[in-house]
């Protein structure tokens, strides 16, 4: 799904940034009402571009969104974009419906992120190329922690008694961080095993 460089209309931006339940500096309280129905064709247009999306299903209802991040230069800590979560409903001609929520990121009038959740299924932008599995999310965190500490792959491999290829696969997300490996990595990073287990998604007692 290609979303980059998609220009949003002024009415769609107004609907995405209509947050009557939120009080924040710079916004009129309560804000002037806007037409939220303009979001229906916008969301449907994006979803319809998915080659596997069932065209019978359409977003039929949306509610005011909630800001997750607001574009601002407040207090010298600039945020370059606005991200908002918009709840709603999708339905089909048979009368069946499912809860729907999207996460939309905008910078100026440009759409930079679109993630939807239909029922319990998340639809979002991929990291890996088409036809390849998505990397384990632990990969990015491990790579960042190692780089910040100046720990080369060879050192991590030696200290954990693992091969360099295993560490490379962990850093690329092609290998899951099982509990024993998380314990060994924690020692090299100088972190608690409990913290690394949480970061690796092993805090629920699972093995994945």
Describe this structure in words.
The protein is α+β, with helices and mostly antiparallel strands and 208 residues long. It folds into two domains: 6-123; 138-199, lambda repressor-like DNA-binding domains (434 Repressor (Amino-terminal Domain)). It is built from seven helices and seven strands; from the N terminus they run βααββββββααααα. Strands 1, 2, 3, 4, 5, 6 and 7 form a seven-stranded antiparallel β-sheet that branches. Strand 4 and strand 5 (97-107) form a beta hairpin. Helix 3 (138-149) crosses helix 5, helix 4 (153-160) crosses helix 5 and helix 6 packs across helix 7. The longest helix is centred in the C-terminal third of the chain and has 12 residues, at 138-149. It is elongated. The two termini are 28 Å apart. The mean pLDDT is 89. Residues 165-196 form the HTH cro/C1-type domain. InterPro entries: Cro/C1-type_HTH, Lambda_DNA-bd_dom_sf. This is HTH cro/C1-type domain-containing protein.
Detail the topology: elements first, then pairings.
Layout: E1 6-7, H1 10-16, H2 39-48, E2 58-62, E3 66-69, E4 82-91, E5 97-107, E6 110-118, E7 121-123, H3 138-149, H4 153-160, H5 164-172, H6 179-189, H7 193-199
Antiparallel strand pairs: 1-6, 2-4, 3-4, 4-5, 5-6, 6-7
Helix pairs in contact: 3-5, 4-5, 6-7
